[in-house]
Specification:
Blueprint (H helix, E strand, L loop, with lengths): L10 E4 L6 H7 L3 E4 L5 H11 L4 E4 L12 H8 L4 E5 H4 L8 H19 L11 E4 H5 L10 H11 L4 E5 L15 H14 L2 H23 L4 E3 L2 E3 L1 H31 L6 H9 L2 H28 L7 H35 L1
Parallel strand pairs: 1-2, 4-6
Antiparallel strand pairs: 3-5, 4-5, 7-8
Helix pairs in contact: 5-8, 9-10, 10-13, 12-13
């Protein structure tokens, strides 16, 4: 810090160490902050909130990061960056510093998903060494207390337009004498779960659109009669599953809108101009009209099936012909009611924003 012209302090955030390292830190001139809440994210937030400087550089206190190489982080912050991410894949990972599962699967896959979902510039979402402007990070409203804190910081910074840059940093084998707290599958799932929950588009919307289009396409093709796809014949069984795809797809799309609106109201996600336009365009009354129109289609199919049944003196019908009418009709009835109820629910969610 002296070589870089930095006037600062070393803060050690501790939330339950039992190895006596707190006293070593104090003896060497560090300021130890006691954090009562357990968890990786909780410890870091306790340290960030207690820090007195304008700029903060955080790192794991296990000898794995080169704390003598702060230059790139400080220079980037001085040049206007608000969040400087270390990248271990460009800076170098020493032998034994990262398990193969984390190095070749976990970190690359989760970082790719983060870039895909949120268009983040970070190529190493989980690097434990990063620098930032303290006020910027405190303004993000970070909430997670576990390992997913690393992902939350990058995701929220990206969504809120924080200027993010990357610098290479090296990773060395840690100097711990105990087993690490990190659990590959448990913590990997927590990171993935966080990324999914913060992206209703990828969790609900895109799968819903695919299912809805596929179900409608297959259902319309099967309404007149059986079809053949190569050597495979498709009939009423495929029609039933197509209608299930339509219902599930429509539900997923509705959940996407509900989740985005709720997240906006709670401050979990920034306002969406697209959703704001949708609220103005798709009012409660228009949603009710669309739902009623779909209901009318369902009623039409139902009446047709009843008339057809009457023409047979209300006796037994040919199963295939009956299903070809009844299933689409029942699907339209269910979908119409869903649209009506969803319109009311969405209107309730929109009350807070209006």
């Amino acid at each position: 810090m002296a070589a870089l012209g930095v006037v600062g302090e070393v803060v050690v955030a501790d939330n339950g160490s039992t190895d006596g390292s707190q006293e070593i830190a104090r003896a060497e001139g560090a300021r130890v902050v006691d954090v009562s809440e357990p968890g990786y994210g909780a410890a870091l937030m306790g340290g960030i909130e207690s820090a007195r400087g304008d700029l903060v550089i955080m790192a794991d206190a296990d000898d794995s990061y080169d704390l003598a190489n702060l230059g790139p982080f400080i220079e980037s912050l001085r040049a206007g960056a608000e969040l400087v991410m270390g990248n271990r894949f460009t800076g170098g990972i020493e032998p034994g510093a990262m398990p193969p599962l984390h190095r070749y699967v976990g970190n690359p896959v989760l970082s790719f998903i983060g870039r895909l979902f949120f268009h983040s510039p970070s190529g190493d979402f989980h690097c434990g060494m990063r620098g930032f402007r303290r006020e910027t990070i405190l303004g993000l409203g970070l909430r997670t207390t576990g390992m997913e804190f690393a992902s939350e910081m990058v995701v929220k910074a990206t969504l809120q337009g924080v200027r993010i840059v990357e610098v290479p940093t090296t990773l060395r084998p840690d100097g711990r004498t105990r087993a690490p707290h990190l659990r590959a599958w448990r913590d990997g799932w927590r990171h993935l779960r966080f990324l999914l929950l913060y992206s209703p588009r990828w969790l609900f919307l895109y799968p819903g659109i695919v299912l809805l289009i596929a179900g409608l396409g297959l259902g319309i093709a099967l309404l007149p009669g059986p079809i053949a796809v190569g050597s495979v014949g498709l009939d009423v069984n495929a029609l039933i599953y197509a209608m299930v795809m339509v219902l599930v797809g429509a539900q997923a799309i509705m959940f996407s809108v509900f989740a985005r609106a709720f997240a906006m109201n709670e401050g979990l996600l920034p306002p969406s101009r697209g959703l704001e336009r949708a609220f103005r365009l798709m009012t409660l009354e228009r949603g009710l009209v669309v739902g009623l129109l779909v209901l009318v289609v369902g009623i039409g199919f139902t009446l047709y099936s009843v008339v057809n049944w009457g023409s047979q003196d209300f006796g037994a019908l040919h199963t295939r012909d009956a299903i070809r009418v009844v299933v689409p009709g029942a699907t339209a009835l269910v979908l119409g009611f869903q649209l009506i109820l969803s319109s009311f629910f969405l209107s309730i969610l929109g009350l807070g924003r209006r």
